[in-house]
């Protein structure tokens, strides 16, 4: 039996196992693997045993896929990413392998609740936000499409920090101890360990230059299986762990220097110790460059060893037919000089041949428009840590400049385009290195790709237009619809007559006709109501919140960043509150809302942290004020992560995508919401543009300035204070913050925020405030008509099939990777 992609459904791992058989295997694993009687086992033990059993179900398909990949002739994809924000593995593995129903039966037989078992899993938070979650969606879709692929990254011992709020509402960061009690999915593959070296110098031997490093660590791969949905393919996510070659120095220990004896171990393990919590602004830290080189060097060597097994002098001119590497942002771009080094210094190729291979295997995805988010490494740091790479980068730059001169490019433009800046303290522009050293550069939404060509990489796109392309982001409907929202999934399958939409999401279009079918609309309303009730229970249990299910659930979940403008949302809430307090608005005239925020701030980002504190204190004041009780409440569940997203998105009715136009590269939360029947209030930014054009202007609450308006206002000279003076609602809100209403009378608490609003407001929150308030009234009007609202929501779902990561991966296959399913 095959599906449209010609994939073999019957090859689906696990699909032939009965519930009873699965129960036996789990019991056996509990008894023999954990030495516990099933009837005595804890949820954590059953979880661990279940994971082991499910893993075993996938082994055969995994091995088959691996050998087909090595022996076959289909170009594989190596996705190089410093982040993978995976979320829990067990429910996903069960769904993709067809073991969901047998597992339910098995749990019933053994006397456990599946949800209790799932709850025992700690989610691997090996990413910060959108970029890391995108990588996780893409490896799911690569497997689901049957494409031979590797995800390569770092197995951080501590992932994204756990967020807590203190008494004052400030963010506190705690270590994410996800490995505390072990973890059943990763397989430490010692046999594939690689040496990764650092430092030292370069020595000339005749006409050959070789690197003599002065220290090295062992990179040990921890392999995770990535089962495709109903495809029978299981790919590998290979996350590297850093270890010391000499873990323990006995001589030092014997001199009673117990700490000194483990210094090399500590130093080596530091490399994969912790995920950098910066999202979209780089931190120029030596350790971060060490992390980047560490995983990229190990991955490239691993890929070569995989495709040329046992060959001492492989013909690496064939490498581009074996694999291509996708650079997820600039973090892995050091791979370009590393492959040049491997080809020249280790395998004896000349520059031209090495360059021809290198530029054909690498492609680069840019995820940002913020100039400060493009990594630039001090040349001095690269020279110190990776002296041979520094030489190679200079030579790439020299040849590139010569090429530009040959094309009659002006000196001024050449200086703008140099990979290595001309300065006393030169820097290496990693985005430029990626653009020059690879075949394609893509942005992550239509608008973003256009702005890359027009602004960020303008000079490059003018000279090398064929390099530039777009792939609009996508999300996996398996995790974010099927698993997160089983009720809606069942309704969709009922409406469409099958569940084939899960691997062909454009089929959702068939729901459009049902938007005018009253009984379908009723069922849709009932699904949302039940999801809201679930969220209320979850939030009560987990956070102690008392949420009124009969309010509009209005959610803004994403990293805390000025450009995303959580400020705009909280100012609007404050303005509404102020209007009630001053008697201008009767709270009974409002559509009752629960405004829900989820956001982590980078630990060193002061303005973002002040915003978090403000939101928490607005929540404290508003939620305790009987005057607005029943009309307005604000909730800020801490530690926003995949689990929270999976609970909140299906329950949300209105989602906020309100970044300043031209700043959000794409956004992917917007897609998850649309697919789950939420309506968006948003600016024309990132992928919002494409969502709106697909779902239709009537079904999207658009407001605010567009990119051209922003540019114009900026060049005219933007004065935020004028907006403060002009709109009394805005003035009242800011005055309330400044006067200490949310800091027990203390006027200095939010000084930085208030000062910034009134004097800088770089992302023009104040300029968009009035339009934002006005659209909120329209939203209230629309919400009063519950059936009309549901109809719009259904149309959103029906027209969002494009935003599947399966479609995105197919676009990459066609436009960039030039490959497809394993043949
Ligand atoms: C990150 O999460 C994103 C961009 C970055 O440069 C870094 Br670093 C981290 C996000 C963008 O901000 C989103 O707009 C986009 O949807 C996401 O990457 C995935 O492309």
UniProtKB/TrEMBL annotation:
Provide the reaction this enzyme catalyses.
Answer: [(1->4)-alpha-D-glucosyl](n) + phosphate = [(1->4)-alpha-D-glucosyl](n-1) + alpha-D-glucose 1-phosphate
InterPro entries, per the entry = Glycg_phsphrylas, Glyco_trans_35, Pyridoxal_P_attach_site
Q: Does the keyword Transferase apply?
A: yes
Q: Which EC number applies?
A: 2.4.1.1
Q: Which Pfam families match?
A: Phosphorylase
Specify the species: Bombiscardovia nodaiensis
Q: Which domain of life is it from?
A: Bacteria
Q: What does this protein do?
A: Phosphorylase is an important allosteric enzyme in carbohydrate metabolism. Enzymes from different sources differ in their regulatory mechanisms and in their natural substrates. However, all known phosphorylases share catalytic and structural properties. Allosteric enzyme that catalyzes the rate-limiting step in glycogen catabolism, the phosphorolytic cleavage of glycogen to produce glucose-1-phosphate, and plays a central role in maintaining cellular and organismal glucose homeostasis.
Cofactor (UniProt): pyridoxal 5'-phosphate
Q: Which PROSITE patterns match?
A: PHOSPHORYLASE
- The name this protein goes by in its record: Alpha-1,4 glucan phosphorylase
Keyword field: Carbohydrate metabolism, Glycosyltransferase, Pyridoxal phosphate, Transferase
What is the gene called?
A: glgP1
Q: According to the UniProt entry, where is the signal peptide?
A: none
EC class of the enzyme, as a word: transferase
Which family does the UniProt entry place this protein in? Belongs to the glycogen phosphorylase family.
